[in-house]
Amino acid sequence: MVNYKDLGLVNTRDMFARAIAGGYAIPAFNFNTMEQMQAIVMAAVETKSPVIMQVSKGARNYANATILRYMAEGAVAYAKELGCEHPEIVLHLDHGDSFEICKDCIDMGFSSVMFDGSSLPYEENIAITKKVVEYAHKYDVTVEAELGVLAGVEDEVVAAESHYTKPEEVIDFTTKSGCDSLAISIGTSHGAYKFTPEQCTRDPKTGLLVPPPLAFDVLEEIEKKLPGFPIVLHGSSSVPQDEVATINAFGGKLPDAIGIPEDQLRKAAKSAVCKINIDSDSRLAMTAAIRKHLAEHPDHFDPRQYLKPARENMKKMYIHKIVNVLGSDGKLAQC
Ligand SMILES: [Zn+2]
Predict the structure, then answer these.
(1) 19-33, 62-76, 145-159: which has the minimum mean pLDDT?
(2) Which residues are catalytic?
(3) Which of 149, 196, 245, 289 has the most CB atoms within 10 Å of its CB?
(4) How far is CA 23 from the centre of its chain?
């Protein structure tokens, strides 16, 4: 049993309260490799932003949960080495699907966990979320819950279609479950193919797909019911079209990959949305840089040669999100 406080990590409570009051959102970046971790920490330190490093079940299977925990501990030490005396780094479990996996993460030093019972019947979602909250709060770990269903594919999380969160349920759900933040469904989606071409219109000039807007009316309703309560948006990658174009230009095949426009996310960040999850954009930035590098340097075979530009490209993307989309730059409580 190790407590996250001994690892120099923080929970989400204070940073979310400040984010809601300040009209910005905290970035939640998924990671499972050293290069992603380094890029996240470098970006957070350079911009003086709090950051959530999150780990999905798939990441735990890929990299091993213990290794990821030590990487997060290393992230705190690395941030300090880079000159940030008081980093605010959260280690968060993304889409925990049972009480056991949440408990396991809490016991090994996670400072925040998500229990995703969105596919369960309503009462069962409340019951398990409550059980996770009771355990987590003993150790001052914060808990994210989910209500409503997001479409898309992310690791093991698969849903064919989305169901918007019902505003009339949110007071009952958060009161009974005791969760600290709530992930809602207002039209974002997991993965790099967030919308089918049929759901979109096409820009006549560029030929690119234009996705349908997020349901800001549903978000407003939820905010009215839960004033000041931290809201979370999953599936909020923008799927940068320049990265998609690079991937496709160097042998990739991602036709019609599309994400959430950044102006929509910026608008959401100014509301009670205080955590925005970004995973696919990091995958795309990494893959684009690696494909380009290997195509241009067919004689290279040292992973450092192509992972270095991959790391640079991810760092650039993270900084862009922090500064231009979420607005969390310069928001550390202490520098
Ligand atoms: Zn998600």
Answers:
(1) 145-159
(2) 94
(3) 289
(4) 18
